[in-house]
Each structure stands twice: as C-alpha cells, then as structure tokens.
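Table S2 (continued). Query chain:
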Amino acid sequence: MTASVSVGDKKQFVRWFLQSYKMKRRECIWILNYMLSNDELLEKTHFVEEAHYCPRAMVMSSTESKELPFRFYKGNLMTADAEKSFHDLRLNPEQDLYLQLNFPNRPPTPLYLSVLEENPYIPLDETINEQDRKLAEDILADSLSSFQEEKLLKQIDEALDANDKEKFFELSTLLHNIQAIKKMKGE
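Corresponding output:
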C-alpha cells in the first residue's frame, strides 16, 4: 500500500483528535503522542475501519464510544495490553500499522475523511455482503413505496366511485405527501 496521506495531514488529524476527545485508556494518549513525535512510524500508520482484519493493527476508543477501550492485533495474536503494543511500535516503526479510532464521527469530519484510507484486508465477501444488503434494502424500499402508491390510487378510485369527497381529499393528500418525500429523496 502506498502512502497516499501525508505525514503532515496525519499529524494535524491526531492533534485535533487528542484535543477533541478523551480516551478510555490513558496509554492511548501516550501512543498517539509518540506517533506525533515519530515521522517514520506515522508514515507507516494507516487510518482505517475494521482494523482487526489487518496483519498489524491497533483499535482505540474514546470515552464517548461504546467499543472496547483498546486492542492490538499482530498476526493471529490479540492483546489488550497497551504497553506491549507500545514496545512493538518502538521496535518495529518500519512495519505498516493500521489504526482504527472509535469516536462519534457522524457526520464524519473533513479531517478524519482526509486521513481515512481504504482497508485492503477486509475480506471480499464482507464487502459484497454489505453491497448486497444495501441493494436489497433499496429494492425493498422501492417495492414498498410502489405498493403503497398503488393501494392509495385504488382507494382514491373507490372514493370517487362512491362519491366520497372527504375520503378522496384525505387519500389524495396522503398520496401527494408520499410522492413529495420520494421526490426529495431523488427517486
């Protein structure tokens, strides 16, 4: 993986992150500050999501996150011992490190998006399943919307046949609202 994010951008993000969030474990603050002082390590650090798939990864959580406070992954091993992982960082700064930070980031901040990289280790079937799930949700939502519209149109016809003006106006307003929502969503 080539370094597509500059060390300067990573430093700016880490500084912002440390000023904006409190960490569940103080060792995480030490590690992030150490990264700021070590350009070689920061150059080999990649900010990703789902870091547990990566061969050498670290996951840290802010106090606002519901995730576990800290995890370090190396090969098939996983530890919650931040001191061991810190020693690994110091001894192997030339190895790629994939870092996942769990913090409230909705909507994502531009600084975070500027350093976030695609995780090359996420299994392909995970990606496909996510895409398939989204596609299925979209198809289901479209089908449900079409069904509701058809049902309303049928009820409007029945109200017209029965000369029920009140029901006609009520159903027409409901249909208009559904169509307005679809238009706003860009459907």
